[in-house]
Design brief:
TIM Barrel, two-stranded parallel ribbon, alpha/beta, about 300 residues, globular
């Protein structure tokens, strides 16, 4: 049963609904700029793009800021093992002042299997990274943490503007709110599958989640949320249906509303079509449909 939460979503620089999209990062730059401007025109509050593999994510954020005028541009996430604080700080200081107010840098510790032998004491690594960002002049209100577990949530509350958890259920928003408190924001990602056939929808969900089954941070979080070993190793239909909303738009609106009822301030929705495919292209028609439903 979902924990009842009395938190009233507060205005944030993120707006109420955002779009999370890997395709926006990796698509043709001209098309990506055009799509970002369209998302702004549709009324979404924030564009979230993944940065976990490292590379040119900061350049892509700057490009997206240049293509838009008021929407927030966020990372989900900057991998702190892939980008030195000095790099992030120099990038931040070089931004025009008008762009700085539209940036939200989501930071994350990634996962041991993805990083390898260097993955040691991730919480201490994040504390040191935030110390270094302080020294670089990057303010706490322009950063958040991809926090899942209690200690990282507490750090997000102490040192950043809030938390951006990925691959979570609405119940996690209640957990996050307890740690973040009233002042910080809770901004979960929610995967949406525009498919009404249960078998096809779950096949898409299974394809999308299979990579994450090998990442302990996600699996342990699902266990904390009450999922069994059978659920997290299957993955079971129960887990798939809890992580992804599929079916009609009304079911997707209901799922997002559950995040807000549990304590979220902002929900970024991701159109999920399976495992990431660089040739898939942008989900622009789906974004228009979602704008009609959510905005």
């Amino acid at each position: 049963m979902m924990t009842k939460n009395t938190h009233t979503p507060a205005p944030t620089p993120l707006g109420r609904i955002g779009i999370w999209s890997g395709e926006l990062r990796f698509s043709d730059p001209a098309e990506s700029r055009e799509a970002a401007a369209e998302l702004e025109e549709l009324g979404f509050g924030t564009i979230w793009m993944p940065g976990g593999i490292g590379g040119d994510i900061l350049d892509v954020v700057a490009r997206t800021l240049n293509a838009t005028s008021h929407i927030t541009v966020a990372t989900g996430i900057i991998n702190i093992w892939k980008h030195e604080p000095a790099e992030v700080g120099a990038w931040w200081r070089a931004l025009p002042d008008g762009h700085k107010s539209r940036v939200m840098l989501g930071l994350g510790v990634s996962h041991g299997p993805a990083i390898g032998a260097d993955y040691q004491r991730p919480l201490a690594k994040m504390v040191a990274y935030l110390d270094a960002l302080d020294a670089e002049g990057l303010p706490r209100e322009r950063r958040c943490l991809a926090a899942l577990a209690p200690k990282m949530l507490d750090l997000a509350a102490e040192r950043t503007a809030g938390t951006h958890p990925y691959l979570v259920t609405p119940e996690h928003a209640a957990v996050a709110r307890q740690h973040i408190g009233a002042a910080g924001f809770v901004a979960p990602e929610q995967g949406l599958i525009l498919e009404s056939d249960p078998d096809r929808a779950r096949a898409i969900a299974r394809d999308a989640v299979k990579m994450y089954l090998g990442f302990p941070n996600y699996v342990n979080n699902w266990r904390r949320l009450g999922f069994s070993e059978e659920d997290v190793t299957g993955p079971s239909e129960r887990l798939l249906d809890a992580l992804f909303a599929w079916g009609g738009i009304d079911r997707m609106v209901e799922r997002v509303d559950r995040h807000f009822a549990a304590g979220a301030d902002h929900v970024c929705v991701q159109v999920v079509q399976g495992a990431y495919d660089p040739d898939r292209g942008l989900a622009r028609e789906a974004w228009q449909e979602l704008a009609n439903a959510f905005l």
